[in-house]
Amino acid sequence: MAKTSSGPFTVTVGNLPPAWQTVPTITFAQGVASSVSIAAYVTDPNGDALTITKNSAALPAGVTYDAHNKRFVYDGGGAVGITSGNVLTADDGRP
Amino acid sequence: MAIAASNPFSVGIRVPPTSSMPTVLDEINTYALWGWQTLAGANPAYNTGTGLTGSSQTQDFIHSDTEGDDVWTNLQAYNRRTSGNNGYYERALSWRNYYVNNFEGSDERSYDAGFLYDHFYGWGLVQWAAQFSDSAALAEAVRITDALYGFWSTRNGGTWPAVGSFPMAYYGHRAGARNLRSAVAVADATFNANAIELRDRLIDLWVASPDWDAIRGMYWMSNEQMGYSSLTGSPWNMVYANGDRAVSDFHIGLLAEAFFAAAMSPGVTPARKAALKSKIVAMATWALANCLDPVWRYSGPYVGIYGSDGTSWHSQGGAFRSQPGAGWDGHTTPSWVNLLVMGYKFTGDASFLNGTPANGYYPAKYVFNRGSKSVFGNTTARTCGDNEVANYVDTVILTSSGTPTPFFSWNKGFLHYTYLIFENGGAPTVF
């Protein structure tokens, strides 16, 4: 049979959303200033840089979310406590 | 924009991991306080855990010795020393690697699950994770506790056992004790909801367990377990229906440790703490009067009471062995030491801690002295004199070939059952 072939072509894969692994409870030891990175819990299939924001759920006193460095930071001054309902959203900046 | 949200999760601040683990210096100071002389070779350097890499610990089957959380035990031995301790670190690391890389899905995990999960640990992984910022170790500890949660939450026909009617010591105490100890550690470190529920339910089950003897102040095993332990046969001939009762002494040591950890946990309610302390003091009171055989002044693998008069018996006591040297083993005797010290710590009554021993009065220091110097197979030989120390409680033994053998691999862990007596160099804190 006579065969023909096309010329080279490019397959374009559409942008895929970031993928999360389960984020466990983030804990700090009272009186010990420290930080916990959450960067390892999310990846982008296209390798895009991600912006990660946090919802409005309250954090324990002394704990803040550092979006620039993708981490939770504890200043060592807060008392024992726990808050729930924290959700992070990853945005790859592309449609 | 392509966006994705994480699962909802919690953020918390917990009480930092605290270690009341006395150091070797505390142990040395305790012996000095008692006027004991340390013999040469009591604490040799252990610099290299030869051959302990990767998953080699699969050869140390968890269902047998060392009867302890090997990550925890080796980590304590490492932390208690400032030099000559790297071998302990390597052993702890090897066990950590085994749990993280090999334990889940292993045959021995399945095997032990068939024995009520009675050798499932995890609190060593929790401490390791905190000390070395090791999230994989903590994740494995959580997986272990999740497995325990799955077991207990379906144990009674698909649901939790009923508080007040479920006999926690039926098949012995160690399963329920170790499972509680694991749940306490994971709950303290992570606020994991399953661990918290498991911890609280196990406390409630223990406190209201029908195998608690409120008159004597002890949890007894079942008739069936006495049979499995050969105690219903010769030479003991225990008869449950007549009121004869028995308990494994090292199981009580494990239960005391679990109750103590729960009573100290910041997450446990004051009512539960009070109930646990009450049980500890009651058990310590019984132990103070009954834990040693009055002839041999050792405990035995099993201790109990005669139903006829409530007096105590000991499975390797003088009345039960025509040839006491054969298979005789005093190594479980130190299992009572921490329980007795807890009695002191919760009451301030120094009679739990020290005093002139007599028949029917066996304080912690005396029990430690007797048990820590026993010689396998010989009721009268001792490793050293009463005012001497042949080996520290978690040291290694240098064999004739020069190979270091961790002491706790064959004596089931003196440290785990005795460390409280070394608090503050022999002056334990009273709460």
What's the structural blueprint in terms of helices and strands?
The complex is a heterodimer of chains A (95) and B (431).
Chain A lengths: L18 E2 L5 E4 L4 E4 L4 E2 L7 E4 L8 E4 L4 E4 L6 E6 L1 E4 L4
Antiparallel strand pairs in A: 1-4, 3-7, 5-9, 6-7
Chain B lengths: L2 E3 L3 E6 L9 H11 L2 E2 L31 H10 L6 H18 L3 H7 L9 H10 L2 H18 L21 H17 L2 H15 L4 E2 L4 E2 L3 H6 L16 E4 H16 L5 H21 L11 E4 L6 E3 L22 H11 L16 H8 L2 E2 L2 E5 L5 E2 L6 E3 L5 E3 L1 H4 L2 H5 L13
**Widest beta sheet: strand line-up of chain B:** 6-7-8
How is the main sheet of chain B built? 3 strands, antiparallel
Q: Extract low-pLDDT stretches of chain B.
A: 53-59
Helix content of chain A: under 10%
Spell out the helices and strands of chain B N to C: EEHEHHHHHHHEEHEHHEEHHEEEEEHH
Would you mind describing this structure in some detail?
With 95 residues, chain A is mostly beta strands. Chain A is built from no helices and 9 strands. The radius of gyration of chain A is 21 Å and the shape is rod-shaped. The model of chain A has no long low-confidence stretch (mean pLDDT 88). Chain B has 15 helices and 13 strands. In chain B, strand 4 (212-213) and strand 5 form a beta hairpin. Chain B has helices spanning 24-34, 70-79, 86-103, 107-113, 123-132, 135-152, 174-190, 193-207, 223-228, 249-264, 270-290, 337-347, 364-371, 408-411, 414-418, and strands at residues 3-5, 9-14, 37-38, 212-213, 218-219, 245-248, 302-305, 312-314, 374-375, 378-382, 388-389, 396-398, 404-406. Mean pLDDT of chain B is 88; it is low at 53-59. Chain B is mainly alpha-helical and 431 residues long. In chain B, the strands form 5 sheets. Chain B has a 3-stranded antiparallel beta sheet with strand order 6-7-8. In chain B, strands 3-11 form a two-stranded parallel ribbon. Chain B is 41% helix and 10% strand. The chains are: A mainly beta (95), B mainly alpha (431). Chain A binds chain B through residues 15-20, 22-32, 41-42, 59-60, 62-63, 72, 74, 78-95, and chain B through 1-17, 130, 139, 142, 189-192, 266. Strand 9 (88-91) of chain A pairs antiparallel with strand 1 (3-5) of chain B.
